[in-house]
Amino acid sequence: MFWLRVSSGCKGTTQLYRRYKRFTKEIGADTYQQGTFRNNFNYLTHKNVFEGDRRGRGRGRGMTNMYSLSVDPDLVIDKVGDDNRLSQITERFK
Description:
Elements: E1 11-12, H1 13-27, H2 34-46, E2 50-56, E3 63-69, H3 73-80, H4 84-90
Antiparallel strand pairs: 1-3, 2-3
């Protein structure tokens, strides 16, 4: 999931989902609904691919899940670069 490129810090679920939608549109892939995306992201957090944190948005405004990449981004880029649909995009990050 190199498209997240979270090296600039933690990102919230909604911000990541917007990036994901743009990315899937660019490569012509199907897009998960936001709830499914969030569930998959939580699964990857449990597998230590991402680090997760919950932050309050202020009184009465709920919580935001924040994520950052736990593994070396180059490892992720190499892994997803094997998919032909992603190879031209992964070249941008090498």
